[in-house]
Write a structure and sequence with these properties.
alpha/beta; 44% helix; 529 residues; five-stranded mixed β-sheet
Length: 529
């Protein structure tokens, strides 16, 4: 298996872990009781439910341990997850693989026994394990207890993940319907303007105006597609990209209202938005996370008004914080329900009556808000309605040096372009030719590989699409590098590759892209050393 393929498999496992909502969450008795029982039955001083994150171990539940995190590299639990099998170490001080780890050298751990916790077959997100400070032989009772409790814990976690995904499906269905409506509304006049431009005979001023409108329309479609992609990938769980743009709360709220407008109208909900944010309302929060906060709170308010009603949304800057307030005149909550509404798996929605709540949405919202140094409060009265108020820190701007210059790139490159979409392939060829490069275009990745294999030195750089069959872009890049390791390759895709560690000579070009972005990516690819 190639390095990239193994990374993709690891990314799938990490995404599954994030979907459980367990990382950095509060203690829960349902897990704490299991680890305490495990330690008692096995006669060990320490036990834990360890979740293996990207570069750390997060102890979701623990007994006899006074820390919550450990480095992942070289740990007992990492081996359990990566092997998908039990790891039994009677005396770690004599085990060459573990004797120099921090847990053994600094914490005095001598004995370890751990079994994988699998959300589904083949996908272990962590380990249920016991530790000891003295050498210990693993008994059949110990293994039976570990395996039995690990199975129970995995079942609970799998159920939680399913409930979280159910909540996401409900949100995505409404948002996607609204997004499709938005795209169609944008494309209708765009196609009309294109027809008028194709017929010719229009005044130069009109042509300029229409081209500017088409530019704005294309940006609107791109933003809508990116919103849908963010939801699909659940990117709030991934580390932010370097240089990610700050988000304007007003723009996000406006976008969410547009996306769910048709669903609100169909249920008789009248949404009124009062924007007092001003021009400088950027929030220190990733766009997809901000959308998740806004959409969850608004959709919860809509669910509280099954017979219709009014929802007032206010956005306002208060000093160094930005406030989002959402008030509905729905059924409201009792004081007890209001206190519990952010707890995992708690919901006031009736299961079986239309959409039953998963009890996960507001838990995720609170976690995102708290992770960004913000706060969330709820006020509710039964039979009157509910008000949710979120405060997030505003971005503190610093003077930045801006450059209007266009970075130079090498001229006269021999570029191999592979994309199975004819229109994209033709456009890419035209753009590259206009930049002074010679281009070889192929729709079939296997044919492109055969031609490259006959003369690897005849190509200066390759641009390949990710989603191709029967060979995808990453696989084709591997094959090209097997023949010529130093060949610069650009992976062009609309998918998110931010968490994939691409080889040194491989770059990522996000679709759709502008000519300036292509020119800059060419420059970066050719400067790899």
């Amino acid at each position: 298996m190639s390095i990239i393929s193994s990374q993709l498999r690891e990314e799938d496992r990490l995404l599954t872990l994030q979907q459980t909502g367990l990382l950095d969450s509060n203690a829960e008795s349902i897990f704490d009781e299991q680890t305490k029982l495990l330690a008692d039955v096995c006669g060990c001083p320490m036990a834990a439910l360890s979740l293996v994150d990207r570069d750390r171990l997060y102890l979701k539940s623990k007994t006899g341990l006074n820390f919550c995190e450990l480095d992942r590299e070289g740990s007992f639990c990492e081996k359990v997850v990566m092997s998908g099998a039990s790891v039994l170490v009677p005396d770690a001080t004599k085990d060459p693989e573990f004797c120099n780890t921090a847990l053994v050298k600094d914490s005095g751990v001598c004995f370890y026994a751990g079994v994988p916790v699998e959300v589904f077959p083949g996908c272990a997100i962590g380990s249920l394990c016991v530790f000891g400070t003295e050498p210990c032989e693993i008994t059949p009772l110990m293994m039976e207890t570990l395996e039995s409790l690990a199975s129970q814990v995995a079942h609970v976690i799998a159920l939680r993940r399913q409930l979280m995904l159910k909540g996401r499906i409900h949100t995505e269905a409404l948002m996607t319907a609204g997004a499709m409506h938005e795209i169609k509304n944008t494309l209708t006049p765009a196609m009309g303007y294109l027809d008028l431009l194709a017929e010719g005979g229009t005044q130069a001023a009109n042509t300029t105006e229409r081209c500017e409108w088409l530019e704005r329309a294309s940006q609107a479609v791109i933003q809508t597609v990116e919103m849908l992609r963010d939801m699909h990938l659940s990117k709030h769980a991934l580390p932010p990209c370097e240089g990610a743009a700050d988000q304007c709360m007003g723009e996000v709220v406006s976008g969410v209202i547009r996306q769910i407008g048709s669903a609100a109208a169909a249920t008789g909900v009248n949404i009124r938005w009062y924007d007092r944010s001003g021009d400088d309302s950027q929030v220190d929060c990733m766009g997809n996370e901000l959308r998740q906060i806004v959409s969850n709170i608004i959709l919860n308010g809509m669910d509280a008004m099954p017979d219709g009603g009014t929802m007032d949304i206010s956005t306002q800057r208060n000093g160094d914080c930005f406030a989002l307030t959402v008030t509905d005149n729905g059924k409201g909550m009792t004081p007890c329900e209001a206190r519990l509404c952010f707890d995992p798996l708690f919901s006031t929605k009736q299961v079986g009556a239309g959409y039953g709540g998963s009890g996960i949405g507001l838990t995720i919202v609170k976690q995102i808000v708290c992770d960004h140094g913000g706060s969330i409060h709820v006020e509710s009265e039964l039979g009157v309605g509910t008000t949710m108020r979120v405060e997030l820190p505003c971005v503190k701007h610093t003077d930045a040096v801006k450059s209007n210059g266009t970075p130079p790139t090498g001229q006269g490159l021999r570029v191999l372009v592979v994309d199975d979409q004819p229109m994209v392939l033709k456009t890419m060829g035209a753009v590259l030719s206009s930049l002074g490069h010679s281009v070889a275009l192929y729709a079939d990745p296997e044919e492109a590989y055969r031609v490259f294999a006959s003369g690897p030195a005849a190509v200066d750089l390759a641009i390949v699409d990710l989603e191709m069959t029967p060979v995808n872009g990453l696989q084709l890049a591997d094959k090209l590098h097997s023949l010529r390791e130093e060949l610069p390759v650009i992976i062009a895709t609309g998918e998110c590759l931010n968490t994939i560690e691409l080889p040194r000579q491989t770059r990522h070009l996000d679709k759709p892209f502008r000519v300036a972005q292509l020119r800059e990516t060419l420059k970066l690819a050719m400067s790899c050393d």
